[in-house]
Amino acid sequence: MYDLVYRGGWPSVLARPLGLQGTLRVVTQALTLPPGPAITGVPARELPPLRVAFASDLHAGPATHPAIVADACRALAEARADLVLLGGDYVSFHARHVDALVPLLAAIEAPLGKFAVLGNHDVIGDHEYIAARLADAGVRTLVNESVQLTAPFSSVWVCGLDDPQQGAPDADATLSGADGIRLVLMHSPEGLRWLEGHQFAAAFCGHVHGGQFWVGERSLISCHGKYNPPYRRGGVFELDRPEGGLLLVSRGIGQGSLPMRRHADPEVHVCTLTFADPVSEAAGARNQA
């Protein structure tokens, strides 16, 4: 029904000239991460800065103009990051829309790898097909699993938590064996529910779209759950939890059901991460997008 009503992508074609798909911005941030648990290998203080490019919610499909998606992928490529992270919702509802992303994502180079998690739209569509097509673009999809980066960042792990809404998140499985600096990749802030009691240096997510469409102080996008609403506008937050950690919440790129944005421009994040040593005071960055 969604594809039928929005056939030909007419909503995005109309919305873009009116400025209702937003203006893509690249948010550059320098973040100092708290130490990870029981770090093995190279001490944190000896690690060079790690350049990470992050984007979420591309939402390829009729509600998102393809030029916005292409611009976002171009920004990821131009960042020349060591590591590229993708936060899910690559399509709106139907898995076939991911086909348009393959050449765009394949053109992005990242020496330490390109990693992704699934979002609720991906699981609703066909998560196996989407993961296979992402693999064709050189992107590895993490589902409740972690991967250790290569030297000189062998003390850093990317930990991918399954989608909290439509998937089956398992923090124990996700973090198992990740005995170092943990960078958690998840689709939405709601993943914090499963991460309670677990230590990580930083988490990257999207889903909330920055509220997407604001009328005064009211957003037309619903953010269900305990953890999503406080982070609706996006930004970088120092978490008030015993385990510490930073949370980066992106406003994302595209749209799902509502094909318009207002006061919530799409964004790509380029972060330079530095690492605090366990013996030093962990400094948290409070940059707000």
Number of strands: 14
Helix content: 10-25%
- As laid out across the biggest beta sheet, the strand order is 1-14-2-3-4-5
Class from secondary-structure proportions:
alpha/beta
Shape: globular
Strand content: 15-25%
Q: Determine the N-to-C terminus distance.
A: 35 Å
- SSE string, helix = H, strand = E? HHEEHEHEHHEEEHEHEEEEEE
Q: How do you describe this structure in short?
A:
The chain has eight helices and 14 strands. With 289 residues, the protein is α/β, with parallel strands linked by helices.
Question: Tags for this entry?
Answer:
14 strands, disordered C terminus, 289 residues, alpha/beta, 8 helices, globular
Could you characterize the architecture of this molecule?
It is built from 8 helices and 14 strands. The model is unreliable at 279-289 (pLDDT under 50). With 289 residues, the chain is of the alpha/beta class.
Topology diagram in text:
Elements: H1 2-5, H2 10-15, E1 25-33, E2 50-55, H3 66-78, E3 83-86, H4 102-106, E4 114-116, H5 120-125, H6 127-136, E5 139-141, E6 145-148, E7 156-160, H7 171-175, E8 181-185, H8 192-195, E9 202-205, E10 214-215, E11 218-219, E12 235-238, E13 246-249, E14 267-275
Parallel strand pairs: 1-14, 2-3, 3-4, 4-5, 7-8, 8-9, 9-13
Antiparallel strand pairs: 2-14, 6-7, 10-11, 12-13
